[in-house]
Amino acid sequence: MTFRQHLTEVVEYYLLRAALKTFKATCRDRTLPGLGKARLQKILWRAKPHEALDAEPGKNFILRHEAWVLPEYVLKDNVSLFGISEEGEEVSFVEVREGENVYSSHHGPFLYITQFNLALNIITMSTDTFLKLALSIPAPTCGLVFVANTGRCGSTLLAQMFENVPGIKVLSEPHSILTLLSLYNRNKISEKHYEELLLACVKILVTFQDKNIHTVVIKPVFKCTPQIKALHEMFPGSRMIFLYRNLKETVDSFMRVMASFQRYASLFTTESEMLEYWVTDLPLPLPHTSYRWARDQALLDSLHMSTAIAFNWCSTVACIKTYIQEVSQALK
């Protein structure tokens, strides 16, 4: 994508933000759906400054209310779980055209990118309704594979290889579980509520009407590594794959990505905000009382981009090591 195209995206995004602010009252009804109801909204306009950034219904879309639907509406195969609101009160789904495969890597490398680009409608419901819906559906009978990774290590390529195996559905970087972990890290939701929502999210993510699907592979963002222990406990028959790359090569690869991103990122963000991504939500083992020295704010404030990326790599590896040790002890 050229700089001109990037610039156009940024301009469109700020025009959308201005429109949302100006016509807030008339363009969207922000009333939270009641228990037992879901809101179907048509997308009138979408924009975000870069495809790799999260797509939030409240920030990136102008929506028009179309209808109230039953929560079960989201169980259709052309509807997929999208995200969780910043305060953890609402869950969103996207609806694409019938027959469109939003999970296909032909549309983009990650699920949240293809969802943003292909979505026709947004369906929202309260988290209480979402939890009730998740409880009403049976436990998944398909095989589950979680691909934990350090990032920039070939995990996307591995996901695309799985995608070409008949009967396997691949979910590459669903941002709903990442947002959920962020809410928990910021004490927006309790540990109990976090675990309930995590279980509900994965149940909904792996529920398909297509009976030919025998295995679902979920490749989370590397920041989600602290969730793998809980996921294994919630789904005992699941398999875990840990994919990694040497530290130096990982940092060099991320730095090349960041250099490309920084060429125009100054149009919508600052360098300190980009660094903030790397020094917050470190993928350290849960609970938050572990590795206290690595969570020290003074230490984190002293990091530069490359050292912060290296710190995330080390945190991910520490998380996996802790998980393996705990599993080994449990088997003794």
Task: Describe the protein.
This protein is of the alpha/beta class and 332 residues long. The protein has a domain at 1-136. 45% of the residues lie in helices and 17% in strands. The chain contains 13 helices and 9 strands. The chain has helices at residues 3-22, 24-27, 57-60, 111-118, 127-136, 155-163, 175-185, 191-205, 228-234, 247-265, 271-279, 297-301, 305-331; strands spanning 38-46, 61-69, 79-84, 90-95, 121-126, 143-149, 168-172, 215-219, 239-243. Strands 2-1-5-4-3 form a 5-stranded antiparallel beta sheet, with helices on both faces. Strands 7-8-6-9 form a 4-stranded parallel beta sheet, covered by helices on one side. Strand 3 and strand 4 form a beta hairpin. The longest helix has 27 residues, at 305-331. It is globular and about 50 Å long. It starts with a helix and ends with a helix. The model has no long low-confidence stretch (mean pLDDT 92).
| Terminus-to-terminus distance | 53 Å
Count of beta strands: 9
Helix content: 40-55%
Order of SSEs, N→C?
Answer: HHEHEEEHEHEHEHHEHEHHHH
The averaged pLDDT comes out at 92
Strand percentage lies at: 15-25%
List the total number of helices. Answer: 13
Global morphology? globular
Q: Output the strand order for the largest sheet.
A: 2-1-5-4-3
The unreliable regions are none
